[in-house]
Amino acid sequence: MGWFKQLMGLEAPTPTDRAPVAGPLGLGQGKALIFDTTLKLLLDEKTSVVIPGTQQIWSVGTVDLGQSTWLSRYYMDDEDFWLQVHTTGAIAGQVESVILFNYQSYVTLNSEAELRRLAGPDSLIGLPTYTHDGVEYTREWGTEAGQTELVTFTEQVSNPDQSYVVEHRSMLYARETGLTDRREFLLFSVEEDAEGSISLSTSLGISLYTTDLNTL
User: Which InterPro entries does the entry link to (predicted)?
Assistant: First the structure.
């Protein structure tokens, strides 16, 4: 089992007498996700995000942002890829955005000093701009002139083996690609488990239209 399926979290009892919540766009655990074959050509030289072939959804994460606003996250058997769908009204309600993410890195942080250096006050995360692999991104969250705090939220995750909770402290950056309604995103997320172990993941994403994908 790969590193993501061993992702640190607080284990919770697996629901027994409760039907799974329907997801947006027909997405759900065990579904096959198919991307439009023209995407690779369209996005060539516009983004370094990789568009995969057909993927199987391994686990599903749900984030309740309040005020009938939701994030649904779909993590693939190929652990390099995950999909986020932002909806309003209900989990399977009005789709506001779809982003395909590629994992760039995943690092376990072994000390408070390392956390401060890589994702805390001594890091560049949270500043108005961030340069990743020579590309500059602009901060999406926070209005401070200097460094802003990471945004906290809780994700309920389930897969065929278990259900658990992941606590996130995240920061999102974005840039224009020159294509209509297709932005590139850079997401940092600090995750902490019940025993205090901390990790930092970095993901690069691209905006998709709902017509860019299908499920089987």
Answer: DUF2491 (IPR019621)
**β-bridge mates for residue 57, sequence order:** 76
Residue 19 sits at φ, ψ, to 5 deg, of -70, 145
Quick one: what percent of the chain has pLDDT higher than 70?
88
Do the beta carbons of residue 27 and residue 98 sit within 8 Å? no
Range of the domain at 176: 4-10+19-215
Which pair of structure tokens corresponds to residue 110? Answer: 């072994």
pLDDT (tens digit, 9 = 90+) per residue, 42-88? 999 999 999 999 999 999 999 999 999 999 999 999 999 999 999 99
Q: What is the pLDDT of residues 126-168, one digit of tens each?
A: 999 999 999 999 999 999 999 999 999 999 999 999 888 889 9
Secondary structure of the chain as H, E, C letters:
CCCHHHCCCEEECCCCCCCCCCCHHHCCCCCEEEECCCHHHHHCCCCCCCCCCCEEEEEEEEEEEECCEEEEEEEECCCCEEEEEEEECCCCCEEEEEEEEEEEEEEEECCHHHHHHHHCCCCCCCCCEEEECCEEEEECCCCCCCCCCCEEEEEEEECCCCEEEEEEEEEEEEEEEEECCEEEEEEEEEEECCCCCEEEEEEEEEEECHHHEEEC
- Measure the CA–CA gap between 85 and 88, rounded to whole angstroms: 10
Q: How many domains does the chain have?
A: 1
